[in-house]
Amino acid sequence: MSSKMQRRTALRRKLHILKTLTNSKSVKKSSIIMDAFLYIYKLKLQVEAIQREYQYLINHIQEVKVEKDGTRYVVRVTCKKGQDLLVSIFEAFEEMNLNVLEARVTCKHFFGMEIIAEAKGQDIDSRILTETILNVIQRPSGNGAIN
């Protein structure tokens, strides 16, 4: 007899927790369970929407920031991952006569890079450097095409 009471008490506690979590106003056990089901389904839809937004951001993020600090340039690049992107950016630096002093790269979810570079000859306008790097990261990669 006591085990039956313990099960009822445990069920009542669990239903109360479900009712509290889902802000259910229902009294009947079946209604509370249905409210919990709908609550979980709405949460699932929200997670899917966040995942879609995340994927969209990862695929469409493209940012280049160039700051000039005396004779040095601090360049931050954030964009979608691409084949040979790192090499292409370093080649662009070389073509512009910039000496890379330090570089930090990440490519877990997207390609991110921070470079500290110095001009070998004359100074370069920050806008030109920004445009050049933007052109590099906007080039189609892969497909065996030579850029």
TrEMBL record:
Pfam families: bHLH-TF_ACT-like_plant (PF22754)
Gene Ontology terms: biological process: regulation of primary metabolic process
Organism lineage: Eukaryota, Viridiplantae, Streptophyta, Embryophyta, Tracheophyta
UniProt xrefs under InterPro entries: bHLH-TF_ACT-like_plant, HLH_DNA-bd_sf, TF_AMS/ICE1/BHLH6-like
Localization per Swiss-Prot or TrEMBL: Nucleus
Highest taxon of source: Eukaryota
GO terms under cellular component: nucleus
Primary subcellular site in the record, as a coarse category: nucleus
Protein's name according to its UniProt entry: Plant bHLH transcription factor ACT-like domain-containing protein
Keywords on record: Nucleus, Transcription, Transcription regulation
Transmembrane segments: none
Record has Nucleus as a keyword: yes
Domain Plant bHLH transcription factor ACT-like: 63-138
Keyword Nucleus: yes
